[in-house]
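Pasting two entries for a bug report.
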Amino acid sequence: MTTRERDPDPETPPHDARLLALLEHAFDVVALTDAEGAIEYASPAIERVLGVKDSDLIGVRWAERLHPEDDGPFRVRLGEAVQRPGASRAFEARLRHEDGSWRFVQGRVTNRLDKPAVRALIWNVRDVTGLRSAEELAREKHELNARLAAIVESSDDIIASKTLDGIVTSWNRGAERILGYTAQEIVGEHISILMPPDHMEDTQKILNRIRAGEQVNHYQTRRRRTDGAIIDVSLTVSPIRDASGTIVGASKIGRDITAEKRHREERERLLADAESAKASSEAANRMKDEFLAILSHELRSPLNAIVGWVKILGMGTPSPEEIREGIAVIDRNAKAQAQIIEDLLDISRIVSGNMRLDVQRVNLAEIIEAAIASAGPAAEAKGVRLTKLLDSHAGPVSGDPVRLQQVIWNLMTNAVKFTPKGGRVQVLLERVNSHLEVSVIDTGIGIRPEFLPHVFERFRQADSSSTRRHGGLGLGLAIVKNLVELHGGTVRVKSPGEGHGSTFVVCLPLMVLDEPKSSRRAGPREHDPDEFDCSDVPLEGIRVLVVDDEADARHLIRRVLEECGAEVIDADSAERAVGLLEAGPPDILVSDIGMPAQDGLDLIRSVRARYTAKKLPAVALTAFARAEDRRRALMAGFQTHVAKPVDPAELVAVVASLVERTGGKK
C-alpha cells in the first residue's frame, strides 16, 4: 500500500507525520527507486506529470517512460549517482505522458546517505513543459524577428515606418539606397523633407486614411532624393496597431518606378506613334485612291472633248465655224492636259529635290502685272473683278522670275476659281520691314477652319467627292508653298470660314542692297505659245530625220517642220532610222526616247559609234521629262532634251539653233 492508503499510525512521531503531509502535497514529484531506477515510492504529483496514479507506477523504471533521444544522457547521470555514495546529479529529460505527449522535466537524483551500499536513490522531479514552451516561443519569436529584420534590411524596396504625426521611426537600407538618406539622418525627422513642393499634401492625405484604419495600396506619387532629384514611387501604406488595437503609426513599402514609368510612357508613345502612323498610312492610301480617281477624271475630261471634236471634224465636211470651234476646243483641252502634266512634274522635281531656279534680280511688281494679265480673261469670263494695289518702289527680290510668276498665277487662278460671279479678287504688294508681302484676297467660298492646316498639303482638297463643284488635282497650292520656300520665303493662309473668302500671303526676303545688279531683264520670258511664225526661224534647206514609233506624233513633227521649209524623212523604229542614216546622213536627228525593241538612247549610242555621224546634231523628244531623264539623254549623246507635248515654236527654234551652231546648215 502507498502512504495515502495507510491510515496514519497513532504511534508515528509528529515530525514524521508532518513530513508525510509535505510529500503528499508537494508540487514537485518526490520518488524513491532502486539502483536500476525502478520506482518504490512516488508522491501524488507524479499523476499530474505522467497521467498515471502513483500506485500504478510502483516497480516501473524511469527508462520505460524515457524519450529515446534522452536515454543516453539519462543513464550517464544515473550511473554517476549510483557509483558515488552521497552523489547528487541534475538531469533533464522527456517523459512520455499517458496520452502519448512528451513532458519536459528537470530534476536531481541523490544517493541515499543512510546506507554504505547504495540500494536506493532519491528523485526530485519538476515538470517544466510549460516553462520550456514559453522559452521556445520566446526564442522562436526572437529568431523570427531576426529573420524579419534581415529581410527588411536586405530588401531593395523602401521599408519604413512613421508616427501619426509623420515622424519617421524606422528606415531600411533599401530606403537609403533609393532616397539617399541614412537611418541616422532621417529617423526622428518629419516625412515632409522627402516631398516635392507640388506633393506636400500627400502626407496629410495618406495619414488621414491610416487614422481611419484604411490601407493605401500602390499609391503612385513622387519623392525628392537628397541630391534634389525627383523620382516616381509606388507606395503601400498600412496602419500599425499596439497590443490594444489602437492605431499608433503607419508602415510603408515603396518602390522606385521611375524607369518603369518612363518605359511605360515610352511604350505608350510608341503605341500612339504606331497608331498615328497607321492612321496616316490609311489616310495616305485614301488620299492616293482619291487622287488617282481625280487624276483620271481631270485627264479624261479634256481628252473626251478632244476625241469628240476630232470625230466631229472627221465626219463629212464641217463648216468653217465648226472647224474654228473644234480647233479652239482641242487647243484649250490639250493645254489643260499639258498643265496637269506640268504640275505633276513640278511635284516630282520638288519631292526628289531636283527643282532648279534661275536666280536673278526680280521686280515683283512686273511679275504680278504679268500674272494679272494671264488670269484676266478667265476672271472676265466668270464675272470676277480683278483689282491691284502695288507698291512699285517696294524693292527687288532675288529669285527665278518664271517660278515666281507661277506662284502668283497659281494663287490668282485659284482665287478666281473659287470666287462666284460678281465677286472680287485683289492683289496687294507692300514692303514689311525686311521683306515683301504679296497678298491675294478673294471674296469666294472661304475655307473651313478644320481644313486650314491642310491647305498646302499635296493631293489634299476640301472636297474630293465625285460631286465636287471645282476641278483640279490639289497640287497648285503645294507647288506654291515649295516654290516660295525655295526662294527663302513663306506662305500662309487665313479665312474667317466658309462663305467669307480667303487671303493668301507670300513673304519674300528683300534683295541685299549691295548685291551686284544683273544685266538680265527682270521678269519672265515673254512668249505666247499661241504665236507660231516660221518667218523668224526658217528651216529651208535643212534635212531632218524624225524617229518615233507613234504615227500621230511622227506626223505632227513632220507637219511642223515642213511648215517652216525643212525636208523631213521619218522612221518608226531605231533599226529603220539607222538604215536611213547609212543611205544619206541628215542635218539633224529628232528622236523619241520611249520605243519598243531599241529605244532612243540605244539609237543615239549607235549613231555616235559611227564615224560619219559623230557630229550629227540630235534632239531627244520625249514624254519622260524628269531631271534624271534629261541627264540620261544628254549623257547618251543628245545635245538637248525637249519634253512632250511639243511647243512647235520651241521645236523649230531648237532645230535651227543646233544646225546653225554645228555648221550643218547648207
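Entry 2 (this is the one that rendered wrong in the viewer):
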Amino acid sequence: MSLVHKLEEANAAYRAGDPIMSDAEYDALVEKLRTEHPEHPFLNAVEPEPTEFFGGTKVRHHAPMLSTEKAYTEKDLIRFFGLVERQAALLGIQGLMYAMTVKLDGLAGSRDRARGVELATRGNGLQGEDISSAFARGLKIVGADVDGPGEIVMPQAFFESEMVPLGLKNPRNVMVGFVAAETEKEHHRLIAEAGMAHFMPYQNLPKYYADRDTILRDIQTISESMRKESPYKTDGIVIEIEEPELRAALGSTNHYHRWQIAYKTKGETAETTVTGVVWQTGRTGRITPVIEIEPVELSGATIRRATAHNFQKARKDGLGVGSRVTMIRSGEVIPFIMDVLSPAPLAVPTACPCCGGPVEEEGEYLTCVNPHCEAQAEGAISHFFKIMGTADGFGPKAVEKLVAAGITDILAVLNMTRADFEGMGFGPGQAENLEREMERCMSTPVEDWRFLAAFGIRYLGRGDSKALLGAVGGLDALNGITHEQIMAVNGFAEKTALCIAYDLTWRWMEIDAVRNRMQVPLISSVAAGAVEPLPFSGMNLVFTGTFSKDREALETQAEALGAKVQSSVNGKTSVLVTGEKPGASKTTKAAALGTPVWTEAEYLFRIKG
C-alpha cells in the first residue's frame, strides 16, 4: 500500500471516530510524505471528513477551515518566526507578540448563524455537513456564544471517570459517535445528562502572550503548563499572530494559514544502521527510497523502517546499506531520519520497481517514464476521484483491482457499466454502488479549477489551477498554451511553467475527453461566461485596515464578484480598498504607483450599483 493510501485510510478512520493509528504516527507519515514528495497534492489539501458520514445536509463554509502547520523542533519554530517577522518588517510592525492557545484534540466544527448554520463539520475545508442537531442532543457551548470555528470535546476527567470503565478509549472518538450516531446509546445519554458534550469556540480559549525570544527559550515549559491547565485532551499548542494586516499579508496555502503553527514536543533519538533500501513508484512516476534499519527501541516501540528522502538527497546523504543514521521519534511518532552519521553509497535502480520500465533522473527525482505503469495509474485514478470529491467507493483496493484488470485511465473508468465492474470480480452490490457513484461524479456540477486539479498535473493544485484558469480565460485556453503564457500569470515561475505546459500538452486529449463525458457543464472560473458581468471581473484588489465586517469575509465576497485578491500592492493592483487605520506601507505604495484608492463605502456602493 502506498504512503498516500495509508494516510487517506488513516484520515478516514480518524474522522469516522475509529482511528487505526495514533495522531503522532499520522503526523510522522505526513512528514515522511513531505520529505519524499514535497510537491504531492495531499500536502496542500485539508484532510477531509468522510463524505456524508454525519448524515447532515451539505454546508459551504463562509471562510475555509484549514489544517494547522506543525513544528516539532526549534528549527521549525525559527523558520516560522522568520517568515512572520520578515513580513512584519515590510509592514512597519514592531514589538510583535504571539498569542498561544492549546491545540484541542476534538472534532472540528464551525458556526455561522448569519447564514443559518448553527454548527457544521469541517468536511473538506470548503464544505462540511450540518450537525446542528447535536445541540438538541445536549451539546453545550463553552464561554461566549460566538460564531466561528471551534472543537467538539469532552472534559478529560469525566472521560476517565465515566467513559473508560465502559471500555471507551478516546474522548474524540466518543464525541464523533455522540454527533453521528443514528440511535442514541446509553453512554450518549450519560454524557448529555452530565452536560459534558462541549463545543469550545477557538476564540474562547485562554490565551497567553509572549515574544519570539521568550517562546524559543521557554517553549517546553510554556507548552507543558498550558496543556496541564486545559480540562480537555490536547495534542500541542497553537502559536499565531493576531494583527489583521499581518495575517492578510501572510495569507494561506490550500492546507494551512501561514500566520499560525502548532508546536509538538520533540521526542527521543537513537542511532542505528541501514540494512536495506526499498524503492516505490508513486502517482506521478517518481520513485522514492524507503529505508530499512536494524531494529531500535524508541518510546517503547520497535522501529524497523524509516522515512527516507527524495532520490537525489538520499544519494547525496549516502543513505545506502551500511550507513549509520540518527532516528528521531516524538511521543508515539514513527521516526524519520534526522542525521546521517556515516554515509554509504546508495544503489539506484535502473528500472521502475513496479513495471520494469525505463527511468530518468528529473532534477531531485528519479522518475518512471512508462505512462502505463500500474503504480502511476492507481495513483492518478485515486487522485481524480479524491479531488473531485463527488464520488465514494474508489478507494485503494477498488482502484488496485481496476488497474489489475487493465483500466489505467480516468475515461476508461467513467465508461464502465455495472456489468463491467462485476466482470472484474466486484460483487453485485459493490458494482451497483460504483456505477451509481461514477454517475454521481459525472452529473454533479463542479468548478473547472477543481476538475483541472483532479488530473494531478505537476504544480497545478487547486489554488494554482484556479489562478491559472481565472487569468487565461477558462479551460479551453489551456489547449496549446505555452510556458511563456503561463509565466505571464502572477505566481508562476519558469520551472513550473515549463512543467505545466509540457504536462498539459500530452494530457490535453484525456482532459478534453473526460470533460466531454461529463453530464453537466463545469462551473467557470471566469466571469466571461456569466449572463451579467461581475462587478470586479479582471480586477486585482488589495484590502487594508479595519472594516465594518471581517476582512476575510470582504475578500471572499470580492473573489465571488470576479476579483483576484492580492496580499500586497504592486503594479498589477487595480484598486486599494481601505478601512480604518489602513497600513502605511500599502497606502504609500499605492500613492507611488498611482493606484486608485476606495473607502469601504465606495467599495460597497460599487457592489450595490
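Dev reply: Rendering is fixed now. As a check, the viewer should reflect this: Confidence is low (pLDDT under 50) at residues 527-533.
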